[in-house]
Amino acid sequence: MSKVIEQPRYSCALGAEQTVVAIRRAVPVLHSGPGCCNKITSLIGQGEAYAGGSTIPCTNSNERDVVFGGVDKLRSVVKGALQVIDADLYVILTGCTASIVGDDIDSVAQEFRSAGKPVVCAETGGFKTNNYRSHETVVNAVIDQYVDAHRAEGGVQKGLVNVFATVPYQDPYWNGNLAELKRVLDGIGLKANILFGQESGGLPEWKNIPNAEFNIVASSWVGLGIAEHLKKKYGTPYLHFPYLPVGGLETSRFLRQVAEFGKLDKKRAEDFIGREERKFYSFLERMADFLLEFRYGLPRRFYTILDASYAVGFAKYLVNELGILPARQFVVDNTPEEFRDEVRGEFAHLSDRRSAPVEFETDGGVIQQKIREDENKTRALILGSGWDRDLAKDLNADLLILSVPVEYRLVLNCGYAGYNGGLRVIEDLYDRVLGTYR
Amino acid sequence: MAKKLKQIAIYGKGGIGKSTTTSNISAALSKMGYKVMQFGCDPKSDSTNTLRKGEYIPTVLDTLREKGSVKANEVIFEGFNGIYCVEAGGPAPGVGCAGRGIITAVQLFRQQKVFEDLDLDFIIYDVLGDVVCGGFAMPIREGIAEHVFTVSSSDFMSVYAANNLFKGIQKYSNSGGALLGGIIANSINHQYSKDIIDDFAAQTKTQVVEYVPRSVTVTQCELQGKTTIEGAPDSEQAKIYTRLAEKIAAHEVSHTPSPLSTTDLRQWASKWSKQILAAESRSIAGAC
Ligand SMILES: Nc1ncnc2c1ncn2[C@@H]1O[C@H](COP(=O)(O)OP(=O)(O)OP(=O)(O)O)[C@@H](O)[C@H]1O
Ligand SMILES: [Mg+2]
């Protein structure tokens, strides 16, 4: 019998609808049963954005669409969406039923494209995989079926890069993270396409994807499938930085690797890095008295219940810059086998002296049980999701909600990547701790 | 005493003669005085044609598609001698899920309790050639048919299909599914064909219910849109179909077959092809 997974921290493949929602003026069109998208957005969404959540066009397919195929209904829903929703790109995504029945969605998308409409499609039947994987599927589908035909003129541009760093909404802080990565990459002399969110240039930016000088994957593994695809398709080389850079040390390391890979003007890059570091550490210096006096009030150990990119990025920052030590580390994104050794390697070398074993576990219930059974003698910090609130309460631990479902906080432009993100971590951490004082 | 409804499913390789055989069984049973429904479970929806002068009837699923709901009496049509004819229908070739269509159509009938209301003695399901997915196994699953008969010639492909069906029956046999009544051997005009099918029945621990020869009478009647029972009631072929129907009416207990494994089946087939080859070269040599 198949095993029940309690509280998985990601969604089914159809969750990639959120990838589309995050592209400015793009709209997902779901060919799925009614309710799928509500379930998904309640797990990995906050805010419906332009046409997400319960406003997504959907075929609401039923038994009749199974027996006779749902292609006709899909066609009429796309037609309706084109009339009713003002957008620049429509992305058809299949749910389980349509994928099992084998509806020929390609030909539907093709029909609309032949009529000059920007319609693309991707197979995201829920049973196929999860939303990390299907994020790549959807991005690649947009590249193949839309970007390729509308490639911006001018060929490869010096200094233009595409950044693949987070999965929108699966990473609740995706918008803030991408904005900060763009800021620092632009700072060292690049022009960064971040493709998603308010700070991106929307679809004109997508049309420029093939013109990038190189691509940057700042993530443990998600996004490599896109960078590989672009390498094959357009010959674009890519740099893989295997976690989310958080704080002074790691962001500088990240930028230096990028500068070297892209053979950027070294002085310009170092000037920027120097300026940013001075700013970053000046805030800490200003608080030195407080931070020193308060050091015993901080949690001493941290538990991680995060995806691989966040887990490594936060562990490095907490260990190396804040002096908090790793307790048990759980990576919850169902990291594909071929990338696990690299994640283990990162945890083995968190710093020169510190390492931590890491466990790959997708079952939130199992993880919480293991943490409960741990010693828990000293005050702990839990890096997890809204679902870990009861656990934190029971252990008198501080909880930083970094993963979906967020539930108990509102996210606007907050991000934890980069120099600014590092400061934000400290603010939020002290906020939790000070909040427990009377 | 309330009479007991007997539900029978006929399976077999595509084109082997299921619909022809089923329609003749239905016709013969009805002439014997039984109330019969023939339920075509095939998207081609041609199962009951020879019961209705070659006419196609609106199918359950077409009606469902057009109207959104179906009342059973809208899709039951009377054919030869008052036989109730139903065609499940299905999607256009290449789209949708025909298997789900069969499930939908059969469930729709069961929910409406039509079978009880019509006071039937027999329902015979004529199921599409190859059991390609779960939907086509519907009639052998719990609570639908209780007896399965397979129509097979002595061709190996047909025997393979029968063996696959036996695997399906075996699989569902523990959960109240239908059991095997036996093999209806069709197009058996030679002794070696009879030997092959007899051997296969012995190997798989089942029986051959009847040997039906290939006969031009069947073709002639079909061309007039009739079963042999209707079109040539006094023919030798009609007598055979009647005898088959009588055996089915009398049939009470079915069994779980013992299908051959894929390797055993291949070995079995190659043993037979060697024998046939040897026999043929002997007869060619004899003719010289
Ligand atoms: N015993 C027979 N003698 C002569 N012709 C036969 C005999 N049995 C079947 N046929 C002919 O073989 C053809 C196929 O038969 P039929 O349509 O009954 O097969 P089927 O198994 O129902 O096919 P399908 O799987 O396509 O539904 C028909 O033209 C039918 O007349
Ligand atoms: Mg037939």
Protein architecture, described:
The complex is a heterodimer of chains A (438) and B (288). Chain A folds into three domains: 13-150, Rossmann fold (3-Layer(aba) Sandwich), CATH 3.40.50.1980; 160-264, Nitrogenase molybdenum iron protein domain (Rossmann fold, 3-Layer(aba) Sandwich), CATH 3.40.50.1980; 284-434, Rossmann fold (3-Layer(aba) Sandwich). In chain A, 46% of the residues lie in helices and 14% in strands. Chain A has helices spanning 17-21, 36-44, 63-68, 71-84, 96-101, 105-114, 131-147, 174-187, 203-207, 224-234, 247-261, 266-286, 288-293, 308-322, 337-348, 364-372, 389-395, 418-435; strands spanning 26-31, 89-94, 119-122, 160-164, 191-193, 214-218, 238-241, 301-306, 325-331, 358-360, 380-385, 398-403. In chain A, strand 9, helix 15 (337-348) and strand 10 form a beta-alpha-beta unit. Chain B has 288 residues and is α/β, with parallel strands linked by helices. Chain B has a single domain (6-259), classed as 3-Layer(aba) Sandwich (Rossmann fold). Helix content of chain B is 43%, strand content 15%. Chain B has ten helices and eight strands. Chain B has helices at residues 18-31, 60-67, 98-111, 114-117, 156-173, 191-203, 216-223, 228-231, 236-250, 262-287, and strands at residues 6-11, 36-41, 77-78, 84-87, 122-127, 147-152, 179-186, 208-212. An eight-stranded mixed β-sheet of chain B has the order 3-4-2-5-1-6-7-8, sandwiched between helices. In chain B, helix 1 (18-31) crosses helix 9 (236-250). The termini of chain B are far apart. The chains are: A alpha/beta (438), B alpha/beta (288). Chain A binds chain B through residues 63-69, 71, 100-104, and chain B through 61, 64-65, 68, 90-92, 95-98, 100-101, 104. Adenosine-5'-triphosphate is lined by residues 12, 14-20, 42, 129, 186-187, 212, 214-215, 218-219, 222 of chain B.
